[in-house]
Amino acid sequence: MLSKFLITRFVKDYPNTEDNKVRESYGYLGGIVGIITNFILFCVKLLVGMTVNSIAVTADAFNNLSDTISSIITIVGFKLASKPADKEHPFGHGRIEYISGLIVSFMVMYVGVEFTKSSFDKILHPTGISFKLIPFVLILLSIIVKIWLSSFNKYVGKAINSSALQASSLDALTDVISSSSVALALLLSNWIDFPIDGYIGVFVSLFILYSGFSLVKETIGPLLGEAPDSELIGKIESRVLNYNYVVGVHDLIVHNYGPGRIMASIHAEVPADSDIVDVHEVIDKIEREISKELNLFLVIHIDPLNQNCEKLSKAKKELSSILSLFPEVISFHDFRVVGDGDVKTLIFDIVTKANNKRSNIELLSNNIAKEVKKIHPQYETLITVDIDYK
Prior knowledge:
Blueprint: H1 2-10, H2 20-52, H3 55-81, H4 96-124, H5 133-160, H6 163-188, H7 196-224, H8 230-241, E1 248-256, E2 262-271, H9 276-294, E3 297-305, H10 310-323, E4 329-338, E5 345-353, H11 358-375, E6 380-388
Parallel strand pairs: 2-3, 5-6
Antiparallel strand pairs: 1-2, 4-5
């Protein structure tokens, strides 16, 4: 397998993908292979397009040139993203990799716009194209090369979890489709007189635009703060629950500062009557081991849980019964009762789905408070609403 050969040949200590230097080497290799491959394809297709007078082939050639520039930007992005943290950027520069991917996406869209114009001009002012065997074969060979390049970028991108290289893989795959359309236009020119070259050129250009738009969506998500991977959430929660003293978890928050630069915080419920020193040692151990295992920085907040208070248990059961009337409430936690005598305040968090609007959330809190008042008119409620984005 050529992809694996290149990696083993040019990436030192290639199995250790968690190491930032190894990851950087993967990125450089992906970028250099992309530059060489796409520039060769650009030269070949430009020569073919000029030889057979085909706007579709020429459009496809300049699409490969933009891919060459994209590979250069990818390399620069990996270089800048690998810079260590500093005073202005205490969490590192990892998000630059996403920014470089966004620049590449806009470049792809720009090429699509320009060649949509050229293709329409070809339809309005058609010129004949002639089928020649050698250019046709060269286009077919370029399709094979692009299939391999897409596979290579996907392999490397998956190995180091790089959205930029995975986007490059998708971009190469769209080139396969566009080049196939160009080859079809050349072949059909033997039997069709009307300017099919221009129409297929429009199709290719619109496909490039669609690909660019898709890449923008994929790369802008991490910059805006997209929801974390549900698999990662499940791993963090299940692993924390596996340790002594931890009887429940909630309020998991994950911050992504770039590939391999993830920070997470979570609340761990522990019995209130546990030895605080022992609990602290266990929590420290959890933070160290899970941070190392999942390649992130984990911080745990301790929530003491009173499991032996009869009055608290009764109040909690009453609240659970009330919340069962509201199907939009998934669960509740951090339940406490404060105050003296008959006048008390129930403090708790509820978890609801992300599709609830702010007005609906406020109405939900008010309705829960009303139901509590029906049972205990003297009770007040302090409700915090957590959103479940899973």
